[in-house]
Every structure is written in C-alpha cells, then in structure tokens.
Amino acid sequence: MADELKVFTGTAHPALAKAVCSYLGIPLGQAEVFQFSNSNTFVRILENVRSCDVFVIQPTCAPANSNLMELLIMVDALKRASAGRITAVMPYYGYSRTDKKDQPRVPITARLVADLITVAGANRVLTVDLHAPQIQGFFNIPVDELTAFYLISRYFQEKELKDLVVVAPDIGKAKEARDFAARLGVPVAIVEKRRVGNADKTEILTIIGEVEGKRVLMVDDEIDTAGTMTTALAALQKMGATELYAACTHPIFSGQAPQRLAASPVKELVVTDSVPLKDGQLLSKVTVLSVAPLIGEAIHRIHAGLSVGAMFA
C-alpha cells in the first residue's frame, strides 16, 4: 500500500483523467466532488490513500474559480487523509496571464494561485506549456512543465506542407516560433501588434518576414477569445499567404471564439485536449491531439523517480 500510485480528478476534465489512467493501466481513484445548493464545494475521497503517491488531474479552465477551489479542496482532503505525496496536475494553469504588474495597482494572480496550491498541501506541480515559464519560480515546491511542442510539430512534420512559414502571433512568442520553425526546417515570420486596453483587442502594425505566396502556420500557447488569432490570420491573408494553419496547446475558446474561428480563413486549427472542448466548440476545422500519453508518462516517471526532462531530450 505504501507509495502506491493513485490518480484522482475533479469535475474539470474527467475524460482526460480517464485517458491518463488508461495509459498508466490503473483505475481512476474514487472521489465524491459536488457543490451544495449554496455553491460551496464538497469533496470526499472514497478510498484509502494513506502513504500513497497521489496525483490530482484538474486543469483550472472555465469556470476557473470553481475548478481552482475543487483542486485546493481535493488537495486538502488528501493531505488530511495522510497521502504520502500529492502532485497537482494542472494541464492548464488558470490565471497564468496575470504574471506581472504591467499596470499600477494590479495583482500578480499567478503567484497568488501558486501560494494557494502550496498552502493547500501540494508537494509538487505538473503542468503543460505555461503562458510564462517564469511562473515556475512562483512556487517553492518542485514544478515539472511539460510541453506539447513535439506533439504538435510532429503532426505538421507528417503533413509535409510545402512553402511553409511559421508565424509568431507577437514578438513575445518569437523564440517559440523560431524553435518550431527550426524543427520543421522552415523560415519564421512575426506579427507585430499592439494590445488595446485590458480587453482582448489588438491592433496589427506589421508582419515581419516574407509570407506572400506561402502557406503559414501560426503557433501560440493558448487561444482565448480568438480575437488576436483571427485578426492576425486576416492580416496574413491580406499580405498574400495562400493557406492558413494555426496551432495551440490550450483551446480556451471563450465567448465568440468558435464563431470567429469558423468565419476565419484558417484551413486547420490543431489543438490539444489540455482543457475540455464542448460540442459547440468542436468545429470541422479543429484537430485535437491528446496530451494523455504525455501526462501519463510524466506521472510514471515522477512516481518511479526517473527524469521527466529526458522525455524531451
């Protein structure tokens, strides 16, 4: 029983948790998770976890506050049930975009969330493609950051698209785009944009690089309202790009995102299942790649005391 591997999940993404357990060849841990009529979250662990190595799979996507509270309460319940080690598995780290003080009198919520997870009793965190890698430094416990970079790049390698250019959606993502382009052996271009206020509105200033007569692939870590993505794709089309592709790890798809993407000129959008997609968001243009084997292998390695970094060597 001691050090036995167990995986639990809240209500955020049970399908992913089941897929991870299928990869690991173990049953999903039994837990009761629901909200009372007063919206308070209740958690009860329905099996013995004393001295076990426990992983809680819970992306803190929408509804972010409810999913975050579920995670914190599950971690607390497991700690009080004498779990040996608790790892918070957050395929998507909510509030990651609030990672610095970019205006007066604003919070650094990504740091606050890190503190909450630590105080709740998590011993380590496992996540996928943080919006800002420095968020790892917000924790005083170990953080393993996985990446869907190889999963997505392998998909496009197999497509063998000719005359392809990888496009960064802004200057801040230029390095990631260069790495992606290097893996595919193609050139890179950068969208220079300016964000307007706190709303998800951007103004495209120019395209740095040659895209006329080329297929383009825009890569980003997440798509939220799709305003930036669709505006940039329209600009690329105007600049003479012949075929438009896009890829991201986290398909948040808030608000009008599905409608914007459906109406956009993008031919194919490749995403992962780090967050659940509802029926109305599963557009014909969207291809979903599963991160379950990636997370499952990382859990196996953490449990066995093996290197997680060696997965990407």
CATH class descriptor name of the largest domain: Alpha Beta
As for the number of domains, it is: 2
Strand order of the largest sheet: 10-9-8-11-12-13-14
Write down how many β-strands occur, each being a DSSP E stretch of 2 or more residues: 14
The CATH topology label of the largest domain is Rossmann fold
> Low-confidence runs (pLDDT<50, min 5 residues)?
none
The amount of beta strand, in percent, is: 25-35%
Supply the CATH architecture of the largest domain.
Answer: 3-Layer(aba) Sandwich
Determine Rg (CA atoms, Å): 20 Å
Comma- or semicolon-separated keywords:
single chain; alpha/beta; Rossmann fold; 7-stranded mixed beta sheet; 5-stranded parallel beta sheet; 14 strands
Q: Topology, please?
A:
Layout: E1 5-9, H1 14-24, E2 31-35, E3 41-45, E4 53-57, H2 64-80, E5 85-90, H3 109-120, E6 124-128, E7 143-146, H4 149-159, E8 164-168, H5 174-184, E9 188-195, E10 202-208, E11 215-223, H6 227-238, E12 243-251, H7 257-263, E13 268-272, E14 286-289, H8 292-304
Parallel strand pairs: 1-4, 4-5, 5-6, 6-7, 8-9, 8-11, 11-12, 12-13, 13-14
Antiparallel strand pairs: 2-3, 9-10
Describe the structure in your own words.
- The protein has 2 domains: 5-146 and 292-312, Rossmann fold (3-Layer(aba) Sandwich); 149-289, Rossmann fold, CATH 3.40.50.2020.
- It is built from 8 helices and 14 strands.
- It has helices spanning 14-24, 64-80, 109-120, 149-159, 174-184, 227-238, 257-263, 292-304, and strands at residues 5-9, 31-35, 41-45, 53-57, 85-90, 124-128, 143-146, 164-168, 188-195, 202-208, 215-223, 243-251, 268-272, 286-289.
- The strands form 3 sheets. Strands 10-9-8-11-12-13-14 form a 7-stranded mixed sheet, sandwiched between helices.
- The mean pLDDT is 93.
